[in-house]
Structures are given as C-alpha cells and as structure tokens.
Amino acid sequence: MSMTQKIETPSITYEQPLGLFIDGKFVKGTEGKTFETINPSNEKPIVAVHEAGPEDVDIAVKAARKALNGVWAETMPSVRGQYLNKLGDLFDEHIDTLAAIESLDNGKALSMAKVDIGLASGCLRYYGGWADKIHGKVIDTDPETFNYTRHEPVGVCGQIIPWNFPLLMWAWKIGPALATGNTVVLKTAEQTPLSALYAATLVEKAGIPAGVVNIISGFGKTAGAAIASHMDIDKVAFTGSTVVGRTILQAAAKSNLKKVTLELGGKSPNIVFNDANIEDAISWVNFGIFFNHGQCCCAGSRIYVQSGIYDKFIEQFKARTQKNVVGDPFAADTFQGPQVSQLQFDRIMNYIQNGKESGAKLETGGERHGKEGYFIQPTIFSGVSEDMKIMQEEIFGPVCSISKFETEDEVIKKGNETTYGLAAAVHTTNLNTAIRVSNSLKAGTVWVNCYNMLSYQVPFGGFKESGIGRELGKYALANYTQVKSVRMRL
Ligand code: NAD
C-alpha cells in the first residue's frame, strides 16, 4: 500500500498521508497491517491507513526518548515557542484542508470544523507564548543555604485522544507538552485518523525536529494499551471514556507508575430558573446539548427547568430544536452532521429506545434521520426521573433529558447526584442565585447564562469520575512539568 492517496472531498481535493509519523518520517507499521476509516455520512470506507501495534509504539518511544535527550534538550525555550507559533500559523494556512478532513472523517459540519481549527491554532500559539516563561523560584530558608526550584519536562509523553474533536484534542495535548520541553507519542482514535496525519505534515513544515512529535494510528486495545503500560513513557494524557480511563490508570500503576492525567465523560446538569431570559436560555441549552451532535464530554444532557416556566420552556425549546438543520456536513447551513460510527449510532438508538420504554415523554426526534449515514434526529425527552438510565448515563449523542424542579436546594442536590463532575450551567438573571448555585455545583466548569464556551486560556477538567488534572491555561503546564528542588550549602 502506498504512503499517500489523493482524496476528493466535496470542498477540496488533497493528498492524504497514510503512514505512521515516527522520527520525522511516514512509515509502515511493523506488522504490515492497515485499517479502513469510514465516512459517517455515507457509511463507505474513505481510505485505509497503516496500523501501529506495540512494536511501533516502542519504536516511536525510542525516537521520542532520543529527541528528548538530544535535539529537544538543546533547543532554547524561546525557539520551542517559535515552533509552536509557526505550527499554529500553518494550521490557519491549511484551515480549508484540515476542516474538510474533519468533516469527511468525523462528520462534523464544515463551519464547526473551521471553528475547531481556529481554536487549535490559537491553542498552539498560546502555548508557544508560554514556552519561555516557565521558571522556578528562589526559596529562602536560612543564611547557609541557597534553594531554588526548576520546572523540568516530565519526559516522553504518551497521548491518547478521542474522535469527537480530533484536531482540537491534538492541539490541547501537543501545545503544552512541547512548550514545557517534552516529546510525544500521540495515538489518534481509530474512527478518525486522517486529520492528525495531515497535521503531522505541518509538524514537518514547521521544522520541529524529528522525534519530538510522533503520531500513530491504531486501536485502543493494542497501540493504546501499549502506551499505557510502556516502561519508558513517563506520562500518559488521555481523553475518552471513564471505563478506559480506569484501565489506563491501572496499567500505569502496574508498569512504571507513569504520571496520568485523564479527561473523561460527563452527564452535565443545565439548570434554568424561572427568572432566566428564556429565549437566551433556550438558545444556549440547544447549543449545550446538540453542538457537535451531542458528542461532547461536557454536553448539557440533564436539563432542569423550574416549574414556573416548565411548560413554556418545553414548547419553545422543542420549536427551536426542530429548526436545527441535520444533514450533509459540507452543506453551508448544516448544524448537525452524522454520529461518528455505527457503534455510536447503535448505542444512542438503544438509549432512545430505553427512554421510550421507561415512561419518559418523547417531545421530538427519537428516530434515525435519512436513509444512509449515522444521522439521528435531535431528541428531547421530558418528565425524566432521576433513576432513569437516560438521566444517569452518558449518551454521547443528540439526546437530552428534561426534569422539573421547584427550589434551588432541590436542583443543587439533583445536579450533584451523579458520579461525573465535568461541567454544569445555570441560567438566571439573579446574580446571587448565579453565584450561590455555581459555588454549590460539583463540577470543573460552571457556565452562567451560556454553554460550551471553551477558551485555551481557561482551565478545563473534571471533578469526581470526570478526570484527573486540568487541561488548558497555565494549569496544563503543571501536568507536563515536574518540580526539582536544588538545595545548596553555602
Ligand atoms: P474510548 O474511551 O474507548 O476511546 C478513546 C480513545 O482511547 C481512543 O483513542 C481509543 O483508541 C483509546 N482506547 C480505547 N481502549 C483503550 C485501552 N484499553 N487502552 C488505551 N487506549 C484505549 O471511547 P469510545 O469507545 O470511542 O467511545 C465510547 C464512549 O466514550 C462514548 O460513548 C463517550 O461516552 C465516551 N467518550 C468520551 C470522550 C470525551 O471527550 N471525554 C470522547 C470520546 C468518547
């Protein structure tokens, strides 16, 4: 099989790299295996890419280790920053190609994919800015001692990313790791390998030395597991399901006790009070659940509406949702494309079936959209009780559950009745309510009168079983550095 293939998308034609990007070169996997990636809009294969197994992970780790101790250690922090700035600029220059690949492989609307690329390039430049601003402290203890700290890179970082925001996750992981002087072996999700490989060509173009960034395509149980248990990987950063997050933590504990950061799932409460600006709230609630086809770890999937506006809210929310345009990701007015895979489609349809059978009221949606592709109608259930599966489990699709509440105390209790704690939102025009409720919700992010607002300057991560550590902002730098104390007797 060749190492590139010309691919035609509805918006552009481009040359797709297919190999594993290891030590600055695209190579075949040692086992000679390939796997196909499927276009979720028509269920047909797009192309086959080379597959990494444990031996390829090992080769990539060796390249990353060599670069870590060699060329990258000799690169000045300011130059690391220049590389990240250049990489960010290249993302912007190639936005049409990168966005088209995301829409083709993941199914997200082209307009939304362009927003992702803009956020990814901004993130890379943001961390480029941090690269020469990472420093320790001098700490006074007594006149005979001179103490200082150094913030050193953790080392070789294994990074495992999901399929819901392939390039954004790529940038969230690679930006802070490189800024702080680490090298990486990043494994993409098997559903969406294409954009990350194209981005590897931009790593080359930016002049980043060979071995600093290694990108591999492969499956979780083989390549992913090999990263988690590798004895020469110093840290693993993972985004994906809570089930796999646990496996990774266990593998790290059983191997070399590598550092682990996890960004996992959620079942986030979105709370609308009687005094909310109802039109504004409906628009954000709609965006909170249906953005990216509900495939967001922070999706506002549990909607609590206060009794005074409950009926009006449902009527207007239903009307708003029915206007969401579902269809071809390449069409200009599309808001919601297909789910990423047959497996996800089936999982979500099972949850919808369960909702129908459990006594919740189906307000709108609930069926497949169209005849081919993994499209699902935006679906709203009302009258959902706390014990129902659709209220408790992460569906990761365009399905939300609405429940009525009377008092602030009641909704705080319900909002927190979950093992997750990634995000939450409050809609109210009362500042006191906004602050009281935000402070009481056990979640890593609380949005007030908005939803899904993510900026690379602001930390993001989970309370409870939604994760360990924080991504983005200054906080992510701590995930990729270790503090050394030097104590000198004078
Ligand atoms: P997943 O957790 O299985 O996959 C995410 C990544 O982990 C992929 O790169 C995958 O190859 C890798 N992986 C899988 N098993 C692994 C293992 N044993 N060791 C190391 N790496 C492994 O997620 P999924 O099956 O694609 O989706 C299932 C559910 O996960 C979704 O329905 C959703 O609830 C959740 N999810 C959450 C996020 C998020 O952003 N938090 C993203 C994707 C999926």
Short summary of the structure?
The protein has 490 residues and is of the alpha/beta class. The protein is 38% helix and 22% strand.
Give structural notes.
- Helices cover 38% and strands 22% of the residues.
- By secondary structure, it is an alpha/beta fold.
- The strands form six sheets. The protein has a seven-stranded mixed β-sheet with strand order 16-17-18-15-14-19-20, sandwiched between helices. Strands 11-10-9-12-13-21 form a six-stranded mixed β-sheet, sandwiched between helices.
- A hairpin with a 5-residue loop joins strand 7 and strand 8.
- Helix 1 packs parallel to helix 7 and helix 4 runs parallel beside helix 5.
- The longest helix has 21 residues.
- The protein is globular.
- The chain starts with a strand and ends with a strand.
- The mean pLDDT is 98.
- Nicotinamide-adenine-dinucleotide binds next to helix 7 and helix 8.
- This is aldehyde dehydrogenase (NAD(+)).
The percent range for strand residues is: 15-25%
| Total beta strand runs | 22
Overall helicity: 25-40%
Across the major sheet, the strand order is 16-17-18-15-14-19-20
The chain-level structural class is: alpha/beta
Oligomer status: single chain
Q: What's the mean pLDDT score?
A: 98
- Give the uncertain stretches in residue-range form: none
Largest sheet data: 7 strands, mixed
Gross morphology is globular
Number of helices: 15
Catalytic activity: an aldehyde + NAD(+) + H2O = a carboxylate + NADH + 2 H(+)
Organism: Lithohypha guttulata
EC number: 1.2.1.3
GO molecular function: aldehyde dehydrogenase (NAD+) activity
